[in-house]
């Protein structure tokens, strides 16, 4: 009988006095892919290592279909894992690296090698079968590790930033493939960590936002993106991070702490007067000659068809993403338009109180 | 800093000399003083090999490397005076930030007050001034990378700064700060900076010139905007930009590019449109959904929508082909049948994989 849910209760882990996981609870269901988004040191790798059994939690427990899972030795857990800093067997050929888990399960040599060959093809490493890992480029080594994890066909697949060492195009291609690869896998739980929000959103059935060891929010990608529970989540799920500005609401007007005011948007009229933090996404700010906010360019970076600006403005430092290529010099004066309708409001403590 | 010249540099790890043996095919290359170059290309295309030849880690199987007027081909890394930053920070964890930065100077037997002055100056520049007494182990990944860089910059006579995927281990959120720091440093020191990355965003935002590599060759080089707007080959159109440039099989007829039976207007002068089989290249950023039929408007069908947060990638079927459209989140996404416009000024034509020049 295949298990249906993996349940974590009150997981905490500290190492050398630093908290890596702080009372984390969640339930994961088979047939679904979960992306864990968070910065480095957010606890993502720790979480995976605890699930894999490589690390025992200080408190809390993991159950698989209500049966105790923590405590089981690694080899008895039906888990495969791919690490950020890929690990391969240096003395084995690329093909045997991938065939290894199959061989260990008793698959006959010929069959194991045939399947390994197929997987290598899937990760774009046809023709590299006889090399040693040390004779591969960084991205190629990572793909070997990925193919080996897939070969294991475990019920729980843990992927720790598996694409960081891959080039851009391969990453793009892999993401698309992952979607397909796991779409029909009703018997697998996949947990996938990443620092890239775009990747987390497009891959995950659900997103878990992890920060300083705490699980800040879990939910459908679009829900988390559109209704980030706190300023911290809002910063993590936007790239560049959401701009945050201090201010208050009084007399049906929104005031930024710099003194500038704006009409109170409809979605904030029900809010009581008082202090708030207002959030706006970098791509919701617009450069316009008639914009109300004056600013100065600190850095302008061109990226394909977009320009990413970092500005010092009348209402504070702002990151702005605008369409088109604007090679603006340092210290250029620009004007920005901000639509209050696009603003998020958070309480002074950081909780979301109104979203556009 | 030095101008770096590669003359007929090529490398084959196996020593073989057949075309397939080369990790880097013989090439000539000049990197100018004070400019920032990105080596961009897919995994295994030879970026690290090229960088390691410049730094002396790999001895090329053929060709010469020059720093200004000096032939350095036979010199070991230590005698080339280069600052290097690798993918994973190389620092002494148990030593303090100060000791890490001072290390190359101590090795060179500088006087201690001279060391102190120089380390202080570099630490300020890198915003590490307040952390000089701290053990390096406790720092964040981006601070560690700055130390790696700082250890190269403390020396007076650095010829070039070479970085191999220095941002891999850095958070997206921190990448911006680090890039900004690198830009500042570059403005100030006028470094000859060569930067390896497989991330086109990183290359585009950072470098004044990008060298796109594939299969051991440099396939196009130029400023970022140029590579984006005028990919020289369909490969560059595919590799630069995310998602890739869309390509449609078409036919040149008179001054038009005919796709799925529909003649399209382009910015090409009439006599420039090649006759017969061509491909139309158009970026997902430039395709538009419109409400009414008109010039260059095609009937399309939405088949998939991917939510990336700030943008959505909409896949549509049009004239038997599939194309991707990149839409800002606030723009409405059509469902089912839709009208798609190809802006004439944004259409590029390709023949046998090569860009047909516009002028
Ligand atoms: N020590 C080695 N022995 C044999 N072949 C090698 C060695 N190092 C690299 N290669 C091969 O040379 C080619 C170029 O490798 P290189 O490391 O330069 O790639 P890269 O562009 O830096 O890739 P990545 O982005 O994956 O790091 C690859 O096909 C690789 O397999
Ligand atoms: Mg490399």
What does this molecule look like?
- The complex is a heterodimer of chains A (356) and B (359).
- Chain A has 356 residues and is α+β, with helices and mostly antiparallel strands.
- Chain A has eight helices and 21 strands.
- In chain A, 45% of the residues are buried.
- A six-stranded mixed sheet of chain A has the order 6-7-8-3-9-10, with helices on both faces.
- In chain B, the strands form four sheets. Chain B has a six-stranded mixed sheet, sandwiched between helices. Chain B has a six-stranded antiparallel sheet with strand order 13-12-11-14-20-21. In chain B, strands 15-19-16-17-18 form a five-stranded antiparallel sheet, with no helix packed on it.
- The mean pLDDT of chain B is 90.
- Chain B is an alpha+beta fold and 359 residues long.
- Chain B contains eight helices and 21 strands.
- Classes of the chains: A alpha+beta (356), B alpha+beta (359).
- Chains A and B meet through α4, α5, α6, α7 and β16 of A and α5, α6 and α7 of B.
- The complex binds adenosine-5'-triphosphate and magnesium ion.
